[in-house]
Amino acid sequence: MQIEETAVPGAYVVTPAQLPDARGTFYEVLRTDLLEQVLGHPFTPRQINHSVSRRGTLRGIHGVAVPPGQAKYVTCVRGAVRDVVVDLRVGSPTFGRHHVTELDPGSGRAVYVPDGVGHGFLALTDDACVCYALSATHVPGTQIDIDPLDPELAIPWGCEGAPLLSPKDANAPGLAAARAAGMLATWQAVAPGHLTDPPQGHGVRGEGARGEGTRRRGERP
C-alpha cells in the first residue's frame, strides 16, 4: 500500500497493492495502522456513508466546521469520479489550492481528507457510488459549503455541459465570501503536526497485501 501526500498538506492519496488472479482481484481498502504512521494521530471511523450519483453530478465543495471537525477517507466502489480536495484553512501556505484524483474500483485508490479541508467530486459515470468513512458522526448545522465553480478556485472539473448541482451547492458562497464570514478553520487550529511548510512528497509504503505464493496476511482465501 502506497500513501502519498498531495499538494494540499495533510491530504493523502492511498494506492493499494492489487492481488489479481483467475477469480478476479483483491486489495486492502484501508489500513489504519499504515495511515496513522503518516498522520501522526489516530483515524477511527465513526460513520460510513454512501452516495450514488448520475453522470455529470457535481457534489461539493463540502467541509465541516472546526470544532467539531470531521476527517474523511473516500473511495469509489462503483463507476468513476473525479475527486477534489481544496485547502480551506485560513493561513495555510496552500490556502485555496486543490488536488484532483480520479477514483474507481479498478485502481482501488482512496483519498484521505483532513479536518479543515474541503472535498467534492464529479461523477464520470451513471450510478457512481462513493463511500466515505468519517472520523466523527454528523452534527447538524456544522457543514460548510463552498461554490465548486468559484473562479478563484479554478478547479478543472472537465464537465461535459452544465453539471447537476443541488440547490444548496449552486447557491454556496465562494472562497473569499466564506473566509470573510468567518466560516473557515485556521491553519493554526488544524495544521498537520509534521508540517510547517508545503509537503515534499511525505508518505509511506506498507507491505499490506503482497504478491503470488502461499497465503499471507491480507490475502483473500
Question: How does this structure look, described?
Answer:
- The chain has a single domain, classed as Jelly Rolls (Sandwich).
- Helices cover 10% and strands 30% of the residues.
- The chain is globular, with a radius of gyration of 17 Å.
- The C terminus is likely disordered.
- The strands form two sheets. The protein has a seven-stranded antiparallel sheet, with helices on one face. Strands 7-6-9-4-11 form a five-stranded antiparallel sheet, with no helix packed on it.
- It is mainly beta.
- It is built from four helices and twelve strands.
Helices, strands, pairings?
Blueprint: E1 2-5, E2 12-15, H1 32-39, E3 47-53, E4 58-64, E5 72-78, E6 81-87, E7 98-103, E8 110-113, E9 117-123, E10 128-134, E11 143-145, H2 167-170, H3 175-180, H4 187-190, E12 203-205
Protein name: dTDP-4-dehydrorhamnose 3,5-epimerase family protein
Pfam families: dTDP_sugar_isom
Organism: Streptomyces tardus
Summarize the structure.
The protein has 221 residues and is mainly β. 10% of the residues lie in helices and 30% in strands. Mean pLDDT is 90; it is low at 194-202 and 208-221.
